[in-house]
Design brief:
Layout lengths: L2 E14 L2 E14 L3 E5 L6 H8 L7 E6 L2 E2 L5 H11 E4 L11 H11 L4 H14 L15 H13 L5 E5 L7 H18 L2 E5 L3 H4 L4 E6 L2 E4 L1
Parallel strand pairs: 3-8, 3-9, 6-7, 7-8
Antiparallel strand pairs: 1-2, 1-4, 4-5, 9-10
Helix pairs in contact: 3-4, 3-5, 5-6
Length: 225
C-alpha cells in the first residue's frame, strides 16, 4: 500500500499565561491509501489538535508531516491550500453547512472552488446525493433537513472531490445511534469505493472497532490499542 499521510516525531505545545503545556511529544503516524484508522483518547488529550496538524491547519513545534510524500513545511500557504484541496476531505461533529445554500449547492462547493464547470459539478453532486438516498432533499436548505441528513450532506461534500484521505473529528458525536450508524456506514462505503484513507478521531469504541487499525493517544504519543 502507498503511504498518504506520514507524521514523524511531532511535538506540539502551547503557552498560556507564561506556562508551557506539551500536547504531543514525539508522535509518529503512518497511514496508507485504503486504510481506515481510529484514534481514541480521553477528552483533552490532543486528538483534535493532531487532526488539525495532519490536515495542515496548524503547525507542529517540531517534527515533519507529509501528505502524499510532500512535506508541509516545504510549501507556502497557497501551495499548502492547493495540496489540501487535492488530497483531503474534512468532516466534523457539527455539519458546518452553508445555511443559505441548498444541499446540492453545499455539495457542489468544493468542485466549484477547484474550478470544475458548474454544470458538471451539479451533475456529480446530484448523482452522489442520489446514491446516498438524498435525491429528494437536494433542493432543501440545511434548516429543512434532519440532523442525520445534514451530516450525510456534509460527508458527501467532503468526499465529492474523491480525496485521498478523509479526516473526521467526532463525526457522529452529535447524532443519535441510528443516524450515527448511517453516517459511519456512509463514510466507510464511500471511502472503500474510492480506495481512500479514513482517519477518525473518536471517543466511541464501537466506532473504533469498525476501523482496520485502532490507536490510542496517551501522554502525547500514539500506541496500538
Amino acid at each position: 500500500m502507498n503511504n498518504i499521510i506520514s507524521a514523524q516525531k511531532i511535538c506540539y505545545q502551547y503557552v498560556d499565561g507564561g506556562r508551557k503545556t506539551s500536547i504531543l511529544s514525539g508522535l509518529n503516524l503512518e497511514v496508507n491509501i485504503g486504510e481506515s484508522v481510529a484514534i481514541l483518547g480521553q477528552s483533552g488529550c490532543g486528538k483534535s489538535t493532531l487532526l488539525n496538524l495532519l490536515g495542515g491547519m496548524d503547525k507542529p513545534n517540531s517534527g515533519k508531516i507529509m501528505l502524499n510524500n510532500t512535506p508541509y513545511n516545504s510549501l507556502n500557504e497557497n501551495q499548502l491550500t492547493k495540496l489540501r484541496a487535492q488530497n483531503l476531505g474534512f468532516v466534523y461533529q457539527f455539519h458546518h453547512l452553508l445555511k443559505d445554500f441548498t444541499a446540492l449547492k453545499n455539495v457542489m462547493m468544493p468542485l466549484l472552488i477547484a474550478g470544475v464547470e458548474s454544470k458538471i459539478a451539479q451533475q456529480k453532486s446530484g448523482a452522489l446525493l442520489q446514491a446516498i438516498g438524498l435525491k429528494n432533499q437536494a433542493n432543501h436548505l440545511p434548516a429543512e433537513l434532519s440532523g442525520g441528513e445534514r451530516q450525510r450532506v456534509a460527508i458527501a461534500r467532503a468526499l465529492i472531490t474523491q480525496p485521498s484521505c478523509l479526516l473526521a473529528d467526532e463525526p457522529t458525536g452529535n447524532l443519535d445511534e441510528n443516524n450515527a450508524n448511517e453516517a459511519l456506514n456512509l463514510m466507510i462505503e464511500l471511502n472503500q469505493a474510492q480506495n481512500s484513507a479514513l482517519i477518525i478521531v473518536t471517543h466511541d469504541e464501537k466506532i473504533a472497532s469498525r476501523m482496520q487499525k485502532v490507536l490510542v493517544l496517551e501522554n502525547g504519543i500514539l500506541q496500538k490499542s
